[in-house]
Amino acid sequence: MSKFAEVFGTEPDGVWRAPGRVNLIGEHTDYNDGLVLPIALPNQIQVTASARTDGVIGVATSGRPGVIEFALADVSPGSVKDWAAYPAGAAWVLREAGYDIGGANLLVDSDLPSGAGLSSSAALLCATAVALLGLRDIEVDPAEVARLAQRAENHYVGAPVGLMDQMASMCCTAGHALYFDIRAMSTDQIPFDPEAEGLSLLVVDVKAPHRHVDGEYAARRKSCEQAAAELGVPALRSVAFEDLDDALARLSGDVVRRRVRHVVTEIRRVEEAVALMRAGRLREVGPLFTASHASLRDDFEITVPELDVAVDTALAAGALGARMTGGGFGGCIIALVETSATASTLTAITEAFAAHSFTPPASLSATPSPGASRVS
Ligand code: GAF
C-alpha cells in the first residue's frame, strides 16, 4: 500500500513538485524592485494529492504523525499554525483569488533541508498551490502562482519576503539561471553550465543556527523603504549606480547609507554577472560573488561567523569567488571552484569549521534544475 493510501485511505489523483533554490547573485534586491539570478535545485518538495468533495483540506507529512484538517471556508491568516500554515496559506490565497479548489488530501514529502536558506517555505507554498490547482485542472501562469505564493507568505505566514524564491521555484528551467527583473516583472533564462568550463558551483550549508532571522530581515526591508522615502523614489532600484554618491550624500544616517550602498552596488553586480555569463566568461563572475559577500558582510550586516569562515576558506583554497546566498544569518554559501578542486575546498571548509568548533558543514549538488511541475 502506498504511504498516501495508508494515511488517507484512498489512492492519490496525482503528484506535484516544486524545487528549492540558490541565488547566484542579487541578494536583498528583490524587495527593492531590483534584479536577481537564482537557479532551482534538484532538491524539492513533493505533494501527493487527491480531491475531496467536502471542502476540507487534510494535510500530512512523512516526517510527522497524524493528519491536520481544516475547512477551506474557515481558513484565515493565523487559523492554522506550525508547518501546516504553509499549505493552509496556499489554500487561503487561492480561495481569496477566486479559484474553485474544493477540498483535498495532501501528503508532503521533502528532500530539501528546511532552515538552510534554500527556500523550503516558498517551495512548500508553490508545491501546494500547483497541486491544488492541478487537481481541478485549473491552469494559471507560473509567475502568477509565484505572486500568489508570495502573498500567502506575506499575509498568511507573516514573513515580509520578496518575490525571488517563489519565482525561482515556479519559473526556473534546467541548465539555466533565472534573470528576473522585479520592477519590469520580466524574466530571461541565462544558460548556466559550469561543468562545461571545468567549473563547479559548490553549495555548502554552514549549519549555523538562524539567529533573529525574521526580525532582522524585516528591519533590513524597513531601512530600505525608509531610504527610498528619504530619497523620494518608489524603491531603491530607482537609484542609478552612477548617482550613488549623490544619493548617499542626501541620506541622514550612516547605517542607512551602508544599506543603500549594498543594494545599489548589488544590482550593478547582477547586471555585470549576467553580461559575463552571456559572453561565456563565467570564470570572471567569481570576483563579483566575493564582492557581493563583502557588501553583505560589511554594509548589509547579515552574515555570521560560519558564513564568513566558509567564504574565506573557500577563497584561500583557490575558489574563483564565494559568497553567502539567501536571506543571511545562517544558511548556505556558494563557491565557484575548479571542478578538480571541489573535494579539497570542501575538506578545507570542514577542517576550518572543526578548528572553530562549528557544527560540521554539509554540501549539496547545485545542478540547475526545472521549476515546479506535475510528476504523475
Ligand atoms: C529571502 C527572501 F525570501 C527573498 O525574498 C530574498 O529577499 C532573499 O531572502 C534575499 O535576497 O530568501
From TrEMBL:
Q: What is this protein called?
A: Galactokinase
Q: Give the EC number(s) under which this enzyme is classified.
A: 2.7.1.6
Q: Which Gene3D superfamilies match?
A: 3.30.230.10, GHMP kinase, C-terminal domain (3.30.70.890)
Short name of one Pfam family: GalKase_gal_bdg
Report if keyword Metal-binding is assigned: no
List, for all copies, the residue spans of the domain called GHMP kinase C-terminal: 274-344
Against NCBIfam families, the record matches this protein to: gal_kin
Which species does this protein come from? Kribbella orskensis
